[in-house]
UniProtKB/TrEMBL annotation:
GO cellular component: CCR4-NOT core complex
Gene3D superfamilies: CCR4-NOT complex subunit 2/3/5, C-terminal domain (2.30.30.1020)
Transcription regulation in keyword set: yes
Protein known as: Transcriptional regulator c1b3.05-like protein
Signal peptide coordinates: none
The entry's keywords: Transcription, Transcription regulation
Family of this protein: Belongs to the CNOT2/3/5 family.
Length: 50
């Protein structure tokens, strides 16, 4: 919960960057269109650079 707080309420700071980096390490992915974090049920079978 603290990581999400840091990401959403400390916009444009180094703390936001660190929170995003840690969320990504924990298999969370940010969707720019919906401005929210999602976690997959399983890893994708095929991946691309995007």
């Amino acid at each position: 919960d603290v990581l999400f707080y840091a990401f959403y309420y400390q916009q444009g700071t180094y703390q936001q960057y660190l929170a995003a980096r840690e969320l990504k390490k924990q298999s969370w992915r940010y969707h720019k269109k919906y401005n929210t974090w999602f976690q997959r049920h399983e890893e994708p079978k095929i991946t691309t650079d995007e």
